[in-house]
Amino acid sequence: MNGDEGSGSGVGPAGPDRGDPGHPAGGALRRQRKRHRLLKGLGLAAGLAVLGAVVAFAVAYALTPIPSTAQAGAQASGSVFYYNDGKSVIARQGVNRTPVTLDAIPEHTRAAVISAENRSFYDDPGVSLRGTVRAVWATITGKQIQGGSTITQQMVRNYYSGLSQQRTVTRKLKEIMIALKVGREKSKDWILQQYLNTIYFGRGAYGVQAAAQAYYQKDVGELTVSESAFLAAAIQTPSYFDRPYGDRRPHAESRWRYVLEGMRQEGTAGAADLAAARYPSPPAPRPAQTLKGQRGYLLERAKAELKRLGYSEDQINRGGLKVTTTFDRDLMSAAIAAVREGRPIGTPTKVRTGLTAIDPATGEVLAAYGGSDYLKNQYDAAFDAKPQAGSGFKPYVLAAALGEGIGLNTTLNGSSPQYFRGTPVRNDSNVSYGGVNLITATQRSINTAYVQLGLRAGLENVVDTAEKAGIPAGQLKAHAEAPTLSLGVASVSTAQQASGFATFAAGGTHRTAHVVRQVIDQDGAVRKTNVETRRAFDEDVARNATYAMTKVVESGTATSAQLPGGRPAAGKTGTTDQARAVWFNGFTPQLAASVAMFRDDNKPITGIPGYSQVYGGQIPAKIWQSFMSEAMEGKPVERFKGPTDTVAAPPPRSSEEPEEPTSTPSSSPSPSEEPEPTPSRPTLPPEPTPSVPEGPRPTVSPGPAARDD
């Protein structure tokens, strides 16, 4: 055996050194050193990043001067609205601003604004770090986060040139740089004065003096603590505070209290003032005198459409827009004259008249009569008011039936009374017509036949057809399953009816009604209205329905609507129960128009000199005739395409047959009736198209003429 191996010296073999890679302690040390080097590297990188950011910020700060000029918005021009010639002015939506010095603004008014918008105003450098981070992050992510901008930043954005209202990181950073410089170089009082003279408060008022007049009809120096707090609260959402009534009041009052609480916390309002504070609900806004007559209605309608197109109230009020509307100046004059001449002298002022005319080829609203004077009544009788349609709804039923293959010469039961799904329906004066085709049912507006027709076509198809023609689904929903849907129990406006009848005039093509043709912004960019066009029903359906409606004008309930020179016209009268609303809706190939008379309180129309009861075939049809005669003057006489329908539909299903009455209903649940043009039943001339015969005459004993319900 080797002596070295068994020497017995007591000294064992040497173990591994700590520096040896194989030693456990050596591996831990090595990892520790690596972490140390990594941390040093990260620290260095972070330091360099911070240094780079500081340098970049310093460079950006140095290279971003305070603009030398105020932007146009600081002395903003309002928008101008033109007739469709692009030259004649309807109205100007100008900026309402009266600059005042800071001394003229009460201290409690200034304090209220600071409480609402920037409580650290007198202490911060012009920006809020926390708010800025939130605002930049919101800009990057596209989220809508309110707040973040100090009074200085808002003033900079609204006052100086070179800053847009776009939500971009570049714009936000530039705003921050300028705000910091302004905060260093300008006094806080100067900043606050500019802010209070440029910020928008709603009601078209820019600056606190204009706001005091717009909301409380007083100068800014007369504002109370409560009123000041309300105006300060309005800055955040001015369009909401414009009319802070009804369901808007809780939010408005909550924001007002928030401002007062801030004033209490900051000690800028006395305890006595705060204890006496009462919510200062402002009076309703007063229309400007320049909106007299129809101008106010036209302006409000155009503004509403601009908002639907994405323009903000602020852009409309101070964006310098040039808005060309679709309104035709000559046709507007014709509409005004037709209503004034058509309404009998002595007609009660509570009886409203609305008129709307639409070009079927474009969907442009060429004329609209919203009331005698916007300054007296801001409720638009052409667009906002929606009385029941009455028998003016029947053409949609007719179109739905034709679309389902039910022909014009299909025979319906025109006897009276009848029951449909338990609902009693009768014709005017309970006249029974026996078997009638769709032409006669339309010409004489036979209720029982039309309820039967609606059920045969399918009420869901009637609703679908009316909606595609321009009647909003929400106005039809409540009546979608009622047999009396076909009798016009749904509420509609003259604008909607003109749009619907324009669809017939356009051969079944619906073009969305609109009042704005184009907008030119202050940079000269032109935006034209993109009109939605869709097929509502087939052209054959439109032709056949139009043919039936020509008989209404030629020898039915609307002979007073006949146009001079034999110009073809088609349409439908309508009179609701107890004459709460009376209508005539009609068209030529070039123009569709709707006229309605009603009361805003939905009471029966009474008190018109010379009329014991009013019907659609009387005053509304005459107004329509007067307007259309002027509107068509000088235009070529175009004729409607004739009917294409010569095939009768199959007999109705048993479920569609009327129920036999068990008793005579005392009254019809449907709209009221309208007289034929003569006091006795006329002998109708034979139809010119043998393949589409007229239905039989009534078989009842002599009595009052049949009426349109």
Radius of gyration: 37 Å
- How would you name the CATH homologous superfamily of the domain at 355-512 and 532-656? DD-peptidase/beta-lactamase superfamily
Largest sheet: 5 strands, mixed
What count of helical segments does DSSP give?
Answer: 21
What fold name stands as the CATH topology of the domain at 355-512 and 532-656?
A: Beta-lactamase
**CATH class identity of the domain at 355-512 and 532-656:** Alpha Beta
Subunit arrangement of the protein = single chain
Strand line-up in the sheet with most strands:
2-1-6-14-15
Unreliable stretches covering 5 or more consecutive residues: 1-15, 647-657, 659-709
- Alpha carbon gap, first and last residue: 133 Å
Spatial shape: elongated
Number of strands: 19
- Structural class designation: alpha+beta
Strand content: 5-15%
| Helix share bin | 25-40%
Average residue-wise pLDDT: 85
The CATH architecture of the domain at 355-512 and 532-656 would be 3-Layer(aba) Sandwich
Can you put this structure into words, describing what you see?
- The chain has 709 residues and is α+β, with helices and mostly antiparallel strands.
- Among the domains are: 98-276, Penicillin binding protein transpeptidase fold; 355-512 and 532-656, 3-Layer(aba) Sandwich (Beta-lactamase).
- It has helices spanning 24-63, 107-117, 129-141, 151-159, 169-185, 188-198, 208-216, 225-234, 238-241, 249-266, 271-276, 295-308, 313-318, 329-342, 394-403, 438-443, 447-457, 459-469, 494-505, 539-555, 619-631; strands at residues 79-82, 89-93, 96-97, 200-202, 205-206, 322-325, 351-358, 365-369, 412-413, 418-420, 423-425, 435-436, 509-511, 516-520, 526-528, 533-535, 570-575, 581-587, 592-599.
- Strands 2-1-6-14-15 form a five-stranded mixed beta sheet. A five-stranded antiparallel beta sheet has the order 8-7-19-18-17. A three-stranded mixed beta sheet has the order 3-5-4.
- The longest helix has 40 residues, at 24-63.
- Mean pLDDT is 85; it is low at 1-15, 647-657 and 659-709.
